[in-house]
Amino acid sequence: xxxxxxxxxxxxxxxxxxxxxxxxxxxxxxxxxxxxxxxxxxxxxxxxxxxxxxxxxxxxxxxxxxxxxxxxxxxxxxxxxxxxxxxxxxxxxxxxxxx
Length: 99
Fold this sequence. Notes:
Largest sheet: 6 strands, antiparallel, barrel
Distance between the termini: 7 Å
Radius of gyration: 13 Å
Shape: globular
Order of helices and strands: EHEEEEE
Number of helices: 1
């Protein structure tokens, strides 16, 4: 089941690129936290634990499309897709919760 979250805050662009660079490194772990909410879940934190896809949405370097796995609502390994503006620190995420 897919759930959409509004992103209200998150990391700087450099942190995102560092997390992507070290995604498969066993010695370096970079996690990122995003403040998020849904109409029924205010004040939710999404902790990205694995960022395995990163692309520029518009070529500016400001808006990014991210894909990976995260920790949210006490559940590890949730797949997510995210659109994130690295200047405004806003966007949205689609989390695919296990059935």
